[in-house]
Amino acid sequence: MAPPESNGSSRETIRKQVQARREKEREVHAKEAPAGPVLTSDDIRAAIYKEEVGLAELLIKLLSGRYCFDHAAGVWHRWAGHYWEPDHLREHRKAVDELADRLEEEAKTVSAGGAKFKKQGKTEKAEDEEKYAGLLREKAKALRRARTRNVVVDMSADGEGSLGVTGEQWDCEPKLLPVENGVVELETGRLRPGRPEEYLRAHAPTRYDPEAQCPAFETFLNEIHPELREVHAFLKRALGYGLLGEVREHKFLIFYGQGRNGKGVLLAALQETLGDQLFRTVVKELLLDQGKVRSSSGPRPEIMSLRGLRFATAQEPDDGQRFSLGAVKELTGGNTLVGRNPHDKREQAFKPSHLFVLETNFMPRAQADDYAFWERVLLLRFPVSFVDREALAPNERRQDRDLKDKLAKEKEGILRWLVEGYLEWCERGLDPPPYVRDATAEYRRDEDYIADFLEARCVVDDRVWPGMTPDEYLSLERTMETQSARLYDEFKEWAVDEAGFKKAPAHAKFSRDMKRRFPSVKRGSVYFGGVGIRAEG
Q1: Is there a single domain that holds both residue 417 and residue 464?
Q2: Using the 8-state DSSP alphabet, how is residue 323 labeled?
Q3: Which of 83, 157, 163, 326 could form a disulfide with 178 if both were Cys (CB 3.0 to 4.6 A apart)?
Q4: 149 and 112, same domain (yes or no)
Q5: Where in this chain does the record put each SF3 helicase domain (predicted)?
Q6: How many domains is the chain partitioned into structurally?
């Protein structure tokens, strides 16, 4: 899919605009910071006679934008300045003391007013005010008792206009990246304060500085793909796109190489920069065929683990495992995902926000003729090997034992590099270079076991084509035909003896795959037209 419009602004123009704002950052933050809640005397007087309901109304007004309760997960959250975070210390309960303090303060003000009325001889008015002040003190005292506190807190989270949220609001704002010192508007590169009403929760534990540099990181990129500038640029666009927070490109990346080749170090640097709320390693079984049907009614915590992520990585499938084509399409397609954690009260639906990256030493098996699957795959080979001795082979480099520490110190620069990569993606899209396209095409060809079998053991009539109907085939002048069972016997022998299969695919699968390439006719048993077994010698 094409990237969004870049609004006519080049990356360099945007960077200059950001730089011009740097000196004004504190002023901007001060202007845009949410105002603190205020309980007026009128607010208090209107609510105080409604018992706990009124106290809950006051608490909602006091804590709105500072605390909220997620009904789906059963968890309170607190506003941390630029993003929401779970209220692990239960500070929302302590915040009830603020309401009690405000009522006591109001009681003093009312008492002072009553005293003035008394001096003016307005005895009845003075008595009314003193009764009201006493009621305020009584409610303040009640709020400091556990029973009333618990009731009021619970009521404050219930219903429309309360502190409660359904749980579906979290992290639904693509193009916004919460970081340690604000929120980055990716479309402009501008840093601004976070806003409670955006309900951003997943954030990077890194400050955003548009001028930060990462020389060790950029040197490392050149080492893992020496002199392949188009690969460096592609990697920057692809990883920058991963910041977006929604699925525009129905792709997933495969980082492939035989150990100590830098792919793990690269992903570790990204995780250090983005933190485990935005970048997380998930169970590899999400993408792989498990050979069993999952219960549709059970919890799906593995799906919930994807919520709010910008990057989801999986590591090291076992040799010979197969991709689950349905799972790959589900997790890279952009359609709504539905999951439930084991202790959640109900299922939650959310739009995916992640880019999937598989890090592997072994390429999982895949069906070569599944067009939708191969449209999603982008394979990047890591050809260099980093060794802890003198480099001997052309593809070897001496390992830098301190590299991870060096990259960790450059995480502000790496974040800047990623934001630039996003802007470059906006202008150009992913645009994979030949190095990536060719590797992906080679992977697909390697998975085409039928083509390998035909090349090794068969002869094929070039007048026959995939999708040819039996009638079209029968209209040809005499051509070769071979019984399906005879072909399968030949295939089984080839698969185990020459192709490295531990066990040949079942006859039924072999037949299905052959029918995609050759017409089948029934002559007592099934025959495939246009294919024969090559004579030995």
Answers
A1: no
A2: B
A3: 83
A4: yes
A5: 230-395
A6: 3
The answer, yes or no, to whether residue 30 has pLDDT greater than 50, is no
Q: Are residues 361 and 402 in the same domain?
A: yes
CA 39 to chain centre: 40
Give the three-class secondary structure for 266.
Answer: helix
pLDDT of 294 reads 53
Provide the terminal-to-terminal Cα distance of the chain, rounded to the nearest Å: 51
Choose among 85, 146, 133: nearest CA to 106.
Answer: 133
Among the three residues 377, 412, 446, which one is the final residue of a domain in this structure? 446
Backbone torsions φ then ψ of 84, nearest 5 degrees: -90, 150
Q: What percent of the chain has pLDDT over 70?
A: 90
What distance lies between CA 357 and its chain's CA centroid? Answer: 11
Instruction: For tokens 């039996």, name the residue.
Output: 470
What domain range is 352 assigned to? Answer: 215-446
User: Mean pLDDT throughout 171-176?
Assistant: 94
Distances (CA, A) of 149 to 66, 73, 90, 93: 18, 22, 13, 7
pLDDT digits (tens, 9 = 90+) for 253-304: 999 998 789 999 999 999 999 999 999 998 877 877 765 555 555 567 888 8
CA angle 432, 411, 184 (to 5 degrees): 75
- Residue type, position 251, single letter: K
E strand intervals along 310-366: 311-315, 337-339, 348-350, 355-360
Q: How far apart are CA 106 and CA 516, in angstroms?
A: 81
Q: Side-chain half-sphere of 452: how many Cα atoms within 13 Å?
A: 16
CA-nearest of 417, 11, 422 to 176 is 422
Where would I find the H helices in 8-67?
11-21, 25-32, 41-47, 51-63
Whether 253 maps to a domain, the answer reads yes
Tokens of 361: 């030493």
Indicate whether 466 and 422 sit together in one domain.
no
Q: List, for residues 60-89, the tens digit of each pLDDT value.
A: 999 999 999 999 889 999 999 999 999 999
Confidence of residue 322 (pLDDT cuts 50, 70, 90): confident
Q: Are residues 229 and 376 in the same domain?
A: yes
Closest CA to 333 of 255, 253, 248, 254: 248
Q: How far apart are CA 227 and CA 236, in angstroms?
A: 15
One-letter amino acid at 74 equals G
Other CB atoms closer than 10 Å to residue 109's CB: what's the count? Answer: 14
pLDDT number for residue 395:
85
Cα–Cα distances in Å, from 128 out to 40, 131, 141?
Answer: 19, 5, 20
Find out whether 187 and 217 touch, Cβ atoms under 8 Å: no
Domain containing residue 359: CATH number: 3.40.50.300
- Map residue 329 onto helix, strand or coil: helix
Per-residue confidence at 23, pLDDT binned at 50, 70, 90? very low
Which residue matches tokens 């129905």? 250
Q: Phi and psi of 326, rounded to 5°? A: -65, -40
Closest CA to 249 of 339, 183, 147, 332: 332
Q: What is the pTM of this model?
A: 0.80
377 secondary structure, DSSP code: E
Q: Are residues 235 and 116 in the same domain?
A: no
Average pLDDT over residues 17-36: 44
